[in-house]
Give the backbone structure.
Amino acid sequence: MSDTVKITSHDLCVALKLEHPADEYVTVFEVREAAGSAMGSRADALVLSLWASRGLDITGFEFKCNRGDWLAELKNPEKADRIARYCDRWCLFAAPGVVREAELPIGWGLWELSANGTIRRRVAPALREAEAMPRAFVASLLRSRHRLDADDLAALNAKHREQWEREQRAREAESPATLDAATRRDLERLRTGLRKLDEIREATGIDLTTYTPSRQWIERMRLADSVALEHKLRLLRDLFGDHDLRKRIEQALQADAEDARRPGDRGPR
């Protein structure tokens, strides 16, 4: 969610559901005052704690994404009490800037969904003395519970969509078209280096991305490929009359020539 994207009720639903794991809470949406009634009050969400250590509380939520909608709600705050009376806590869940703390009715809490998707608990809801639920309300609650599977799927899809969009923005930010010349050169050098490592692996079977050669092996490779070394050895052989020294030089040159002609692995020995 970026700062330019308007936060919707669906965003609030997803955030609330992800905030309350299914093995710890039951979260239901659009719970009416009574089953089968199109009239009366409605809670946007109810969250029931499943752990006795937390008191098995019920928290009701009212969603507000629009300032005008909230100001209209303020003219008749008693309407929410028709469901809030069955809850242990009552809380507004709003987009940033929609609700001011000073406007809250006594005892109401306030949560905000930030533009980055995190929840800010600005005001903690007060503990209320909940009334016993009548059968009509229990039926409405269970009826809303029946829609939970679809809500689960929507929340999961929304979470994956948000993650994909975040990764896509990161990929676009790394696009060569948006990078300066120095960064593009560094990326091209990196790609060239990776290609060379692939060539070394194909030719020798040695993967230098996971294997660091020893210093001794590096020196051997440097000496084996040194034309100057071979030239010096030949000079030593021709200039010095020491029979043993000449013999050792001849053996070294012959061994190196045989290694060069021998097919197969030329890796470290």
The two ends are 57 Å apart (CA to CA). Residues 24 and 51 are 6 Å apart (CA to CA). Residues 265-269 have pLDDT under 50 and may be disordered.
